[in-house]
Amino acid sequence: MHILVVDDERSMRDVLEIMLSRAGHQVTCADGVRRASEALGSTRVDLVITDMKLGASQSGMDVLRAARALPEPPEVIVITAFGTAVSAMEAMREGAYDYIGKPFDNEELLLLVQKALEKRALRRENLSLREHLLPGAGLMAVGRGARMRAVRNLVDKVAPTRSTVLIHGESGTGKEVIAKELHFKSPRASQPFLPINCAAVNEGVLESELFGHVKGSFTGATHDRPGLLVHAGEGTVFLDEIGDVPLATQVKLLRVLQERKVKPVGSSAEVPFQARILAATHRSLDAEVKAGRFREDLFYRLNVIMIELPPLRERVEDIAPLAEHFLSLQRKALERPGLRFSPEALAMLSSYSFPGNVRQLENIVERAATLADGDTLTPASLPPTLRGESAPSTATAGSEVALGAGFSLERHLDEAERRYLVAALAQAGGVKTRAAELLGLTFRSFRYRLAKHGLSDREDEA
C-alpha cells in the first residue's frame, strides 16, 4: 500500500517514513500542501497521514480536501496536537478516517493505519464487485466536472438515510445508475434492489407488480403473490419513469407511501412494508402537476430530496473520460487490449451534443470498437452524424415523386414505419425500451405500433 506522509518537520517525516516502511508500505513524504497535492495528482495513494498544522499559514485540512476531491479518494488520518479536539472533529466531518493526538504511541498509529487500509481495500473490492455485477456502476466515479462531483457528494450524504429520493434527468443520463449507487452505499446494500419501469407496464399490471395480488383476484391469478414493495424486504424499490404512472394508480401509491402499508389486488387486508422508495423521471413533474397529469401531493411526497442529473452536453469535460471508460469495457469484451482513440476522434466526440446522453455515447463507442479494422479509432470510425454528414436521402426538396396507378400513401407509410420499427429493434438488440427511445417514442406508443404491424410477442400481449 502507498502512504503519503505530510508534515513540515523533517524529523517527524523521517520517523514516520522509517516506521511505515518497516511495516511493508511504500512511503512518499511531503513538507506542505503544494508538494502533497503534486504527489496526489501524480500517483495513486491509498492513505494520507497529515499533521493538522503545517507551518504558519498551511493546514492539514487543505491536504484532506485535496485528497477527498480525487475520483477515488484515499483514506486520511490527521495528526493533531494536544488540545485541538475541535479541529479533529472538523476533519472527521470533512471525511477524514480518524485522528490521533501528539505525542502518539507507535503501535497505536500502526493499528490505526492497518484499519484504514483495510477499509480502503474493502471499498475497492466492493466497487470492483459492483462494476462486475452491475454494468454502469463505475460511471459515478468517471465524471470529473463540478456538476457530477456535486451529484456524487449528494449521493454520499443521502445514501445512508431513509429519505425518499427523486432523480430527474433526460433519457440516457444514468438515473438507474444513481439509484443503484444510493442502494449499494446504504445499510440496505445486502438486501434486494428491485427496479420497475412504470412506463413499460399497463395500469392493472402495475398495481399487481407493486402491491401484489391474491389468488383469484383476476384471470390468471392462480396463487397469492407479494408485490415488489413487500418482496424487497428492507431493500430498495426503484420506480423508474414515475411520471408515466396513471392518475388512478397515483392515488393508491400516495396512500401507500403515507401509510407504509400495501393492499394487494383483490384483498381487504393491509400488509406493512419496510423498503426504501427511489423514483426517477425524465419529465418535469412541476409541469405535469400544472397540466393536471400528476398529483401535487404525490409529487411532494416523492420529492423529499431531488437529484438533478445534467445532460451530457452540459458537462463536456466528462465526455472524453466516459468514452475512455466505455472503451476499456470493450477492450475486455472484445479481447482487444490495444484499442485506443486518436486525439482527433476524442476531439470530435467532445464537440458533439449527444441528444441520447451517456447511453448514446456508450452505443457509439461499442459500435466503433466492434467495427474497427485496426486498434486506433479515428474520426472515420465514428457515425456519420458526428462527422457532420447527413444520411443519404432518396429525394431532395422540390424533386418529383412518381405516383403510379394504385399508389396508396397509407400503405407506403405503414411499410416505412414497419421498416423503422424492425431496424430500431435490431439496433437496440431487442430491448424494446431502448428501441422506443431510438425512435423518439414513448414505450406505450412503441408497443402499440409493434402490435399494429404484427411484431409484438406474447409477453407484449400479456
Automatic annotation (TrEMBL):
Modified residues (4-aspartylphosphate): D51
PROSITE patterns on file: RESPONSE_REGULATORY (PS50110), SIGMA54_INTERACT_1 (PS00675), SIGMA54_INTERACT_3 (PS00688), SIGMA54_INTERACT_4 (PS50045)
Keywords of the record: ATP-binding, Nucleotide-binding, Phosphoprotein, Transcription, Transcription regulation
Keyword Nucleotide-binding: yes
GO MF, one example: sequence-specific DNA binding
PANTHER family in UniProt: ALGINATE BIOSYNTHESIS TRANSCRIPTIONAL REGULATORY PROTEIN ALGB, TRANSCRIPTIONAL REGULATORY PROTEIN
Biological process according to GO: phosphorelay signal transduction system; regulation of DNA-templated transcription
Ranges where the Response regulatory domain occurs: 2-117
This protein's record includes keyword Cell membrane: no
Protein known as: Sigma-54-dependent Fis family transcriptional regulator
Domain Sigma-54 factor interaction, first and last residues per copy: 141-370
